[in-house]
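User: Structure with guanosine-5'-diphosphate, tokens only please.
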Amino acid sequence: NQNKELFPVVHWFPGHMAKATRMIQEHIKKVDVVIELLDARIPRSSANPVMIDTIGNKPHIIILNKADLADPMMTKQWIEFFKSKQLSVLAMDSKVGNGKKQLIKLVETLSEPIMNRWVQKGIRPRSVRTIILGIPNVGKSTLINQLAGSGATRTANKPGHTRGQQWVKIGKNLELLDTPGVLWPKLEDQRAAARLAMTGSISDDVYDLESVIQQLIETILTIHPQSLIERYKLKEEQLIDAPSIIEHIGRRRGCLVSGGIVDIDKARRIILTDYRSGKLGAMTLDRVDEERYYVED
Ligand code: GDP
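Assistant:
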């Protein structure tokens, strides 16, 4: 089933994408620095294809979020990759707030030349403004809440601010829009789409579980087969192919229906949940050397 469409139901229609692009362009006009969240397990697959065109030449920070769920060696490689593209990049775990201070410092550093330009032009200095963008579920709200945490001052409804939107003070002369910009995921690329499903970045009703699990297990067999042996107490000789692995795991976990037959669907969901929550270990699915990245296209 290699060529099977994974997404017969796609939630992002061209009209929605065009509208999202317009909204993001509107938001971007109001900010000086853009923060884009990527999933550290899939830095390429979780990137939005039109992001670079949309933000123009504003300073752009890439956050590899959920770094706690990614392979640290691979995260290092991705950081080098983005740096080689002259992008500012930082790995974070927004759930616990790791990397928060470095992020604020990075935005402040990028803000300095902007503020200097204002001074030179005789423009009255104001706070530097920033926005967080990313596909659904990448951790945008979690990060905003971390940054806006204790001590943050909300500055809604000040002159020059759109009603209903709030700017949160997050550092020296630094404000963050408290509404994140939602980018659409790369569903037209089947490999990216499968990985977005594996990591839980797209809702469970729009992909084919069977095919996604098949690909997830094949990937794990390539990059970290030991995790299956350890987590499910399998023997090495049981790692034959995805269907037999699912069957063994189902049996181990007691996912049985009458007659001792394995409830394959239940076993599949266990594997998926375990991968997503990091119980199969920190595993990165996108490799730097796999293919060219969209910024080079
Ligand atoms: P949003 O849709 O981009 O706003 O994503 P959310 O902030 O709602 O986060 C989606 C899920 O990812 C939630 O269950 C968060 O707890 C979780 N999450 C966010 N950041 C991290 C992180 O850095 N590490 C881990 N392990 N989970 C995270």
